[in-house]
Each structure stands twice: as C-alpha cells, then as structure tokens.
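S.,

Sequence below, as promised.
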Amino acid sequence: MKRISIRMRVTLWFTALMSLLALLVLVFLYLAGQSSVKTGLRNQLVNTITSSLDEIEYEDGKIEPDDDLDYFIGGVYLSIYDAEGRLLYGRIPSAYNGILPFRDQTLQTFSENGLDWSIYDVECEVSGYGPVWVRGILSSEGASSAFSLLFHLACLALPVFVLLAAFGGYHLIHRAFLPVRRITESAEQIGSGNDLSLRIGLRSEESKDEIYRLAETFDRMFGRLEDSFSREKQFTADASHELRTPLSVILSQCDFSLSGEQTEEEYIHALETVQTQARKMSALISQLLTLARADRGQDRILRETLDLSGLAEMVALQIAEPAEQKSIAVHTEISPGLTVQGDETMLMRLLFNLMENGIKYGREGGNLWLSLKPCGNAACGTVRDDGIGITPEQLPKIWNRFYQAEPSRSASRDGVGLGLSMAQYIVQAHGGTISAESEPGVGSVFTFRIPASEKNQKKL
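The prediction came back faster than expected:
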C-alpha cells in the first residue's frame, strides 16, 4: 500500500466510500420499497372494503348488495361470506383456494403459481341478518413489478454512478496534484543544478488554493535562499579582497626589509606601514566577527543606562581632528540629558561611523552637522553632510556589507564599506531604526531613532 501513489490511494478510498454509500442506498431503497408496497396494498384494500360496507343490505331473507357495488373494484376482488364461511356474494381469483382463515382487519399474504396476493378481512354486522365477513383480495404483482423495476434500475444506475464518481475523482485529484508535481520537479532541478534562480511559477490566473500558496511559499523561500547565497558569495569575495590588500602591503614591506642593508629610517617606516596595515586588518576582522555573531544571534548587548548626549559630545570632539584635516567644520546641536538603555561601546561606534562617513565623503572645506534631540519616547539623532551625495540607485545598497557608493574613488579613502552595515546593526540591536536620504552633489542625511530609557521617557 505504501508503494501506491497518494493520487491512487485517495481515489481508492473515495471509490470504496462511494461503493459503501451506494450499497447502503440500495439496502435502504429495498427495505423502504418493501414497506411502501405493503403499506400501499393495505391502504388500497382497506379503502376499497371500507367504502363497500355501506353498500351491503339484507332484503327478502338474503344479502342484496347495492347495484353500485361491484365485485371487482380497482384490481380488488370483493367477496362477502356469512359467519360460517359460505360465499354469499362476489368472486375470488382462480389462484385462491380459500385456505386462509378470516382475520378481522389483518393483512394476509399468499403465493400461488408465481403470483403474490394480499388479503384483508373485515367483520361487520348487517341489520336483520347478522355478522358477515367482507374479504378483499389484491394481486401485488403490479406494485411489486413497479418496485422491482425501480430497484433493478437502481442496481444498475448506482454502480455506474460510483464508476463515474471514481473517474471524476481521479481526474480531479490528478489535476489538483499537478502543481505538486511541478513543485517536486522544480525542487529536483534546483537541487541537481544548484540553480536557485529557478522558480515554480504557478500562473496567477490559476486557483489560489492551498497548493498554490504552498508554491508561492517555496518561491519566496528560494528567493531568500538565492539572495542569502548571493550575499554570502559577495561577502566572501569582498572580505578576501579587503584582507588581501593589507596582506600584500605587509608582505612587500617585509620583503623590502629583508632584501638587504636598509637605513634605520627605512626600517622604521616599513615597521610603521606593517603596523598600520595590521591594525587595519585587526579592525576589519573585529567588525566581521561582530557581524558574524550578530547573524547567528550570538552577539550580546551589554545594556546599561547611558547618557547618549554625553557620548555624542565625546564623539564630536574625537572626530574634530580628522575633520580638520579636510577643513570640514563640525557643528553640533545636542539636547542635554538624553539617556538610553544600551551598550556604550556600540553606541559610540554608531556615532563615530556615521560622522566618519560624513568626513570620508564630504568635500574639502565643507560642513558636518550632528544633532540629537528627544522625539516621543525615543532619542533621535541626525548626521548631515554637504558632500558628494548618493544617487537614488545606490541609496538602497549602502547598508550592504563592503558596498561603497563611489568604488572608483574608494581607494583614496580609508575604510572597507562596513561602517554603515555596523551602524544599521547597532541601531536595530537597540530596538531602533535608521534611514538615509541623499541628493548627488548636495549631501546626505542619516537619521536614527533609539528608544529612551524609562527614566527619560517619564521626563518626555
């Protein structure tokens, strides 16, 4: 049974159920028909005999039925007997031999020569004569024949109906399982060909039943897997590229130092270059580990009540020196006393990354603005610059790891494109949101919102 397909198993179950239902219908039809025939015969006999009782009279010492009374009415043979059982009036069918005794208001049956007969007797009192028996005899051949014909038609029709229902059910189940076959084939193609771009792609005009929704779910899952694998491949390629550059510099400086007699200044310069590149690699690896732990949900946030206003002032002072090297003026507008529940190191990195990004892509002699103020039950911060800006096509991609809006000019800038990814992660880890707006040649605005601490919320 396990080797039979689901389609065939459902069809067999459906057919067996319909067959059982047809059998029950036949049994019910037979029992109900027999009861209906018996009731119909009884009613016909009772009605005929009851209507004839008023027509029996006694005149001149003998029973004289009315002229309206016929001995054969509607297929019923009427006969009248005295108390001793002698026939006084009427006729009886030739097949009846008179062996059944009289039973008042009781339906009796007998068979003779392949025919079934029903007998009904009524005892009545004739004025001036005494008791007599009125007997009605009716052949059940007509009613039985009609019922037999109906029953045989049902015996023929119900199996045909079961077969048609089984065929229709099989066809319906076959059509219903076609999408499942397409899902299976698509999954096999994706698995064998490692092509996550394939989709099941059920037509939108098809009925949106449970299987259609299942196919849509698979398509969305394949889309997420494709996107995830693509980002992982890109991440691996970008990380390898970013690590290869400082490694190449370190190796070249080492080869230069070991190539022969160098001056003390040259040795010092080589060591300083190696140190700078090693620190760059260390920072890159640290950020990658942080993001990797965040992806696995293993990076824990050390939450404590922090003065975000004080942290912002501190970061603004730290960023002043690199900003001065590009003649960028730093402007701050920080509301005092804003507190949040968060990790001090991560929140400082958030502010530093956003402001460093403004300096990196700002123009010489430009400006950088940092503002922090309360908004509802949260602290809202804004970092704005008047630098090169970002095109609308590039703006959604800036949160991707290793993405840089100006690849052609990135070599001249420090950084590997992880700053905004880290900023987004930090804000989301603190239950906040971050967004960016930009216009090429005008500048960029980064806005973040972090829930304030309970103490600060009461003040707000």
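Residues 407-413 have pLDDT under 50 and may be disordered.

Coffee later?
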